[in-house]
Each structure stands twice: as C-alpha cells, then as structure tokens.
Amino acid sequence: MKSNAPGQLLGYTIQFPRALYHLLRSGPGDAVCVEVRGDVATLKPDGGVITEEDKSSIVGNPLTDKSTDLWKTFSNWIKAITSRNLGVGKTKFILYCNQSGRSGIVDKFSSARNQKEAQSAIDDAKKVLNDIKKDHDIWEYYDLVVNQNESLLVKVVERFELQIGSDTGYDNVRYEIRRKHVPVSQIEFLMDQISGWLQKVITEKIAARELAIISWEKFDQQFLVLFNRARCRELVDFTLQYPLKDEDIQSQVKVRPVYLKQLDVIGTTDDDILEAVSDFLRADVNRERWIESGIIDEDIASDFETKLNNFWKNQRIRIDITEKSLSEEDKGQLLFRDCKSRAETIRDMSPPCSTIAGTYHALTNKPVLGWHPNWEKLFPKQKED
C-alpha cells in the first residue's frame, strides 16, 4: 500500500460525516448532495447553494499558503461559476479542514465579511505569494484565480468560510445530534445508525449512476425512526413521572415484607429501612415500565438479576474468608452495603440509582439470597402450592 493511501482514504470517507452534518443542520425543502456541487453541498428550495470542499490530513494542516489543496479549491469554484454551475450571488462557499494550523491566507479570506475586507485579504495574499514562479505546483490555480479572475474572487471571498473540525469529522455530528435533544448516552447509538443508513443510501445511488442527493424529508423520516428507537434504549426513571406515595411507603414499613425483615436481623437503622422501601418500590415501577415500553424484556431483566446474584455470592465468600472476627450481624451489614453500592449496567447503560439496591431487595424478598450468614434458616423459601 502506498504511504499516502490512508490519507487519501480519509479524504474520501470524511464526506460521509460532513454530509450528515449538513443534513442535521438542514430544514424542510432542503437537499444535501455528495459529489454533485462540490464534495458536499446543501441545495436550498429558493435556488441557494452551500457548497463545501473537504480537505483532510493525518499529519498536519493541508491548507498552508502555498498548498495545492487551497488554490485548487478556489480554482474549482471560479470554474464552476464561469461555467454557470454555480451562481456566485446565491452561493456560500465552505472549505472544511480536519486539522488546524498557523493562521495564514485562508484565515484572512474567511474573516472577510464585505467587498472591502475581501479585497484587502486578496491584496495581502498577493504580497505573501509575490515570488511564486510559473513552475510552482500552485501556479496554474493561483494564476486563474488571482490574475485572471480577481473581481470574481472578491465575490467568492465575501461568501467564503473556513471550518475547522475534528480528525474524523464526527465531533461536529455529535454536537448537532445533541442539539436535537438526544440523551447523551444515546448519541453514539444514533450516530452509528444514521451514519450507516446514509452511507448505504449514498453508495447505492452512486452504484446506480444516480446523483447522490438526499432530501431533508427522507432524512427526517429515517432520523425520527432511529430517534424513537434511541429513546426506547434509554433507561428512563419513570418514578420521576410517577412519584411514590407516602402511604405506600408506610404500608411497606408496617407490613414488614421479607426484604425488610432481612434488614432487621442484621441491625440496620430506621433510615436504612425507609431507603430500602423507596429503592424497592422505585425499582419495581421502573422494571415494569421498561418491560411495558419494550426497553428491556424478561430475559434482560433476568440476566441483570443473575449478575447481581453472582456478585452477592462472591462478596459473601470474600467476607467469610477475610472477616472471620466480625459478628454475624456485622457480616450481614457489610455484605448488604457492598451489594447496594455495586455498579452494574443493563444493556450497557447505567440504570437509575435505586435500581441495583431495589433489585437486591426484590431478590431478598423472594428470597433467593440474603444478608445474614444464616438467612436460609431464618427465612426459608415458601413452598409453592
């Protein structure tokens, strides 16, 4: 493989996240295209165009004052205007680069906001490059842009913007997805899904010799499907919508279910009891709602309980070996607090804080595990009829 092949590959593939970025920023009636009006472009319903050229590097800034990438880009824009493929008055010109570097000509061009500032930036560029010879790599582009079409270049520079992004271009995508009110924990899932869809659509269009144009409406339809799927993946704390009732808590305290009796025999405090009731009820509500909403199923819930059970077994053995001098009650207290502070995930997501402790209480309520070393004798499992 040639030494510059990885950089060339990055140059092609970076168009996908850039197209996704523009789709996320587009609106009804817009369309985003790849390799139609530049590397990536947004077509507006009123005929306006945002055309973008993408330059990338894996080693450094590809847009130095004498870089071919810089002057070839402006040369291509000038040619597109003179051939009437672009209307300079209705076009915004973007040059995207995945690496930053020392401020130079391209930065001055980008800072220009009117004709006077654009002309000043071009004059500065002439001074910097006044020693360019005709055998230089950039000469044919520089000559066309500055010497032959300076008045047109002024109009382009007025409408020009340099954008600096991340190495792969996906940081900008993450930011735009977050702006859509997507939970932080689901950004990667949604980005991966929508990126895969977009790449497939573009590749299929190119293979079929069609223009790779994606309408906002088609993108929005797919985005909403994946957005709703991402929301279903989120372990929403439904108890925030359905607060616990004080009478339900007091009823548990009064009835004293097995999980509370298990805490009583190891000498926990009244505060521990109230916290246990809250965790138990919250975990029960969330588990039921998650299953109803399709966020998890019984198999996932069972797998989560198995993970907690395995941790309990290991901690119980460890305490028996290392804490021989402790009383049975203290061993139970230590085991209980180790387990309730356990960090565990459900489908690679962290559940609400009450979930782990509440699930442990549900398991001790059956009971399939316990805190006291002799819990099985103290709380024998009832035989089913």
From TrEMBL:
ABC-three component systems C-terminal domain span: 260-378
InterPro entries linked to this entry: ABC-3C_CTD7 (IPR046913)
Source organism superkingdom: Bacteria
Protein name as catalogued: ABC-three component systems C-terminal domain-containing protein
Species whose genome carries this gene: Kuenenia stuttgartiensis
